[in-house]
Structure formats: C-alpha cells, structure tokens
Design goal:
alpha/beta, 446 residues, 4-stranded mixed β-sheet
Length: 446
Amino acid sequence: MKARTLIGSVVVVALAALSLQGCAIVNGSGDDPNTLRVMMGADTTYPKQRKQWQQDTAAEFKRTTGADIQWETYSSAQEELTAIQTSVISGQGPDVYAIGTTFTPTAYATGAFVEMGAKQWQAVGGKDQFDPASFGISGPSASKQIGIPFASRPFVMAVNKSLLAKAGITSMPTTWDQLTADAKATTSGDVHGMAIAYADGFDPWKFIWGMSENAGNTLVDGTKAELDGTAVQNAYRTYFDWVTKDGVVDKSAIGWNNAQALAQFTDGKAAFFPMTTTTAINSFKGTKIDGDYEFALLPTVPPGATERPADGIEAASILSGDNFVVADYGTKQDLSFDFIKQVSSKKAQLEYYDLFGNLPTNTAAAKQLADDNPQLKPIIDAGKLSKPTAFTGAWSDIQLALVDVVVQSIPSLKSGEVTDDQLRKRLQDAQKDAQATLDRQKNGGL
C-alpha cells in the first residue's frame, strides 16, 4: 500500500476509536461496488437547487453507468479537514471529494489521492478541456497533480451604484485605505459602507491573506511561517477597525456569516460587499439592488500605502474554487472518473453556473459565458490576477489559525476594541502553531 502522511492536528479521538495500526487495506467506499460516494461542501445559500442538481446528476450517472451516487457533505473548513484526515487514517471514505482549492495541498500531502497521468486525464475527458489557469493549485508541479478543476470562484467586490453616486464616488477604490474612506463616505443612518461577516468560517482569512500579499508578505516562505509580522498586524488592524474605530460595518456583523452579510447588501443597506463572487448573482435577482449593482476588483495596494511596494504582489484574489480529488484507497476509480467526466462537460458546467454562479473551468463553457455576459469582466479579470496560496500540506492548519485569530477576537470586537497587545499575542500564538505545523510537514510526521 502507498505510504501516507497526515498533516496537521489529527483528531486523537478518531484515532483511538478506529484502533488502527498502520493503513487498513479496505474497500474505501463501502461494500456496494455500484454506489459512488461523493463528498461536497454543503450549500446553505442554494439548498433547493443543490438538491435538484444532485438528483439530476445522479439520474444521469445511473443512466450512463448503472451506478448510484451517495452524496455526503461538510459544512466548514474544519469538517473538510477532519473528513480528509479520518478517511486517510481509516483507509475508507468518499470516493470523490470536491474540496476547496486551498485544501488541495493538504490532500496531496497525504498521498491518499490519485495522481493524474495521461490515462487518468483521458478518463475525465482530456486535460485540454480545462482552462490552464485553473491548474494553479492542482499539485506542486505540472507533472504532479491530483486536483481536477471543477469550479472557479475569483473574489471581487459587489457595489451598490446608487449609494456610491449619492456619495459622489465616481471610481472604484484601488487601495485598501481608499476602500475604508469610501465606506465612511457611504455610511449614514442604517446604511453602512461595507457588508462584512466576521463570524464566517471561510471569509476572514481571505482579507488578511490579500492585504498581506499586497504588502509582500506571503504568510509562508518555504518552510517558514510569517504570521506575526507588521503586514499581517496591519491587515488584522484594518479588518477589525472597520467595525470598531471606523464604524463602517454594522456592529451586528460581528456575529454574521456570509449569508447574513449578503442579505444586508441585497436589502440596499451596504455600499460595498467585499469578498464575494459570482455565486451571489442569483441571490441578487429580484432584490432591492437588482439592476443597481456591479462588480469591481478588490484593492491590491496594502493598508497604509498609496502604491504597492516593490515586493508587493498584485493578488486580486486567492486562486479560488473547487477541485475534485479521487481517493486511491478504494476500488472505484473508474466510476469516479466517469462522474467527473460527466460534470466537466461544457453543457454541465454552464448548467452549474446557471444554478450556483460558479464560473466554469471548462474552457469552451467559460468562453461562451464571457461572450454572453460582459458584466462578468471584473470577475474574469480577478481570475487572471488570482494567486495561489502556499502549496504546502500545512496550509489548511495555517488557514484555520488565521480564522482562529478572528474567532478569539469576537468578544473584544463586541466590547468595542481589539487592543494591539491582544492582537500581538494572538498572532504570536498563531505563528507558533503555524511554524510547528510546517516543521511537522518538513519532518514527514504528525
């Protein structure tokens, strides 16, 4: 059996409960050879559409292969990580995972997923059907890839055109300080400059990553963590000050998830909705801002600066979306590739966009969409300016550590201030944990 390595803080209870010694050689997807287990993130924004898509996809899969699909979900980054770790430990679990791009390095580091070669790419319909830019985080190199691109979600801002016009704002902010200033200019009464979700499990770290990249701090430099530097502190300070010092975010947002921030924007109560993507488009339809919004690039000049420093990175977004990975611990790789081929076709990808707003990774589908929808240009531009997070098996733990700084700061935000000392201490702890994870990865152990 292929040797595997688990990266990060594996749940000790799971290890004890499984009572495993080494890797178990089992059918990784259960006893039924005609049931494919597929795990995807839960869709709380479009649950009815997700259910219908799953039913239609399963029906088509049954018609073409004779096999059934068993759908499984995770609802947070922590659940996603735990699912991967538990499957690798036990040698059994889903046959196919749709994982966030930033989790692909962790999946790769386990050694538990199929490395794509010529035969495997042919089985999913050919590698050349995919947009080359979508492979940026499929593996450590072009010849060592496990991630099969499924959906693209570059992050941008949605803006309320009427609120900006009312404030006399005629151009989009290109620096984070300009965004703060414009948010102040559009804050009045129950209308706030920005819709932000501080309690969301996925959003907060992306702000910190983007501002830090713009300042030239990549958070991970080879095997060295860089979470407690000045650029990172400035990023968190800017992010926290929006709701405390600047007053451009509704204080209720301290407890909001992304869907609640989205609701504020669609109600016409926020001028800017940063860190959103095409998945929000369907939610805009029929609301107060339908026909009165547009998309814009996120700022790429760091806080405190009027231009990007020489070592700054024009990262308009993380390289974001979903990759499929196929487990090598079971016996259903052929069925797995049949499923991926089905949902990677031009027709299937355009249908997926219509339902959920995820940009296609299929080149032909993406071209047709761009030709038919010129308003998507800022999002397509953001895709071209997207940068991958560090390709290390430690990244998932580092990402969670970045979010945890916000989680720990929630009580302070509610009281009105995150002090410099509190922030410094939390970043020191995050740095220590991140470096320990990188060291474990370097040493090939837990």
